[in-house]
Amino acid sequence: MSTTTTPERPRERRELAIEGMHCAACVGRVERALAGVPGVVECSVNLVDEAASLTVEADAFDEGAATAAVEKAGYAAHARGPAASETRADREAEEARQDDAWHEALRRFVVGAVLGLPVVVLGHIGLVPGFEHLMHDRRLQVLAGLLTLPIVTWVGGGFFTRAWAQIRRGETTMDTLIALGTGAAFVYSVVAVAAPGLFPEGTAHPFFEAAAVVITLVVLGQALEARARGRTSRALRALLELRPERAHVLRDGREVDVPADELLRGDRVVVRPGERIPVDGTVLDGQSAVDEALVTGESFPVPKEPGDSVVGGTVNGEGSLVFRAEAVGADTVLARIVERVRAAQASKPPIQRLADRIAAVFVPSVVALAVLSGVLWYLLGPEPRLNYAIVVAVAVLVISCPCALGLATPISVMIGIGKGAEHGILIRSGEALETARAVDTVVLDKTGTLTLGELAVTTVQAVPGEDADEVLRLAAAAEARSEHPVARAIVAYAHTRGAAPATGEEFRSVPGKGVQVRLDGSAVRVGAPDWIAEGGADLSAVGA
Hints:
The protein is α+β, with helices and mostly antiparallel strands. Helices cover about 50% and strands about 15% of the residues. The strands form 4 sheets. It has a 6-stranded antiparallel sheet with strand order 6-5-7-13-8-11, with no helix packed on it. Helix 3 packs antiparallel against helix 7 (about 210-240). The longest helix has about 35 residues, at about 90-125. The radius of gyration is 33 Å and the shape is elongated.
């Protein structure tokens, strides 16, 4: 008996940028559309990030088919590459787009608030003692209607446009609830004002404020959502900005400047003192100390010499290095960190998957419930039955709009993971955040977490016969021009002790050894004991 096994197809992670999603129902629709595309193994759509994260079988997946499926569902889609492949221009364009979305939503909210507040006042002025006679003042009702008109047509116009497009496809979204609820309230109010004779005497009460307030508050929610999305994306872009735009490369025996994105594996890259390292590699020549806090969280520079590895985005110290590029583009440690953060933001914790499933059936259920409520009130309710039926149906539609159901969890996950990345904390997934509630023990790295991560002098101990303040003054004079963390700590401590450092001459920094200056005709060295001894100093009393 012989058996055969089918080799597992290679899988890749792909991303699509999705435009036009506004609620959890949209998320479900896009996910169902993509799930039917050949080669798609797993699909997760993030409403806040406006993206779909796909796990696909590389040899069976067709990106064009995925894009077409999304467009057939009523949304726009295009491929989104790894974060590392984005240029500065791409990032600036995305930031400008997000800023435009925030300002547009804010502008609509301000207009809605300015016009809506008088509508609320006009709608309730008859309840104020002494103003009862204005309860049915037709002039005030007409004014309220005129003020509500631009709120319905411009501030909330997008709800109606999107709802109509979805209804034509036989589908419903949260926009459907908003459009039906506010539209019904507005139309009913217009009829009540224009033709009050259609209603029993004294029962033609318009509800313009219902349409105005609901649309304005939902637009406010969209503005806050856009603001949160922009701030979180900025945190990721800040990580990418740690990579320098240009790099110095040795080619054909001379040094040339090239865009960092054009570096190739095997290139010999030159890094001068104080510059950021553009890509990952291995040191070929030179000695220096590199600040690798980006990767390790440790503020103390790590010595580098030939054979040691360096990481793109970290900061070179006072020496010059020549290294061979080993990982470029999306393969660098920095690029992988950004991709991990982006993938974590796109992941869905169990509570969000539950919310998405509920939202998928929520809208048609609410519409059916609103119709049923209206019919029952019309058939069984007291007079004026039509008024009560319309008010109840509209109320069910309006109060049932669960925008928070589809937005609260993804916004919380995105902001939480983005904020963590901003502070150097990498959270693996949204599920990790949800399960963190069960954590009862936390193990923390000390440096930079429990402590400030900044060196500080606590005590100056001089050898017998020497003055500690004078020793501090000399050390500060030597370290005054150095950017090493130890140097900054010594100089800062000297100032707090009133031992202002003198001005030295002929400053020299020796990577991995220390610094030297000439002061009052004598050489002053601060650094490693063996190097100080090489200068002729007698260290026999040290440690005695």
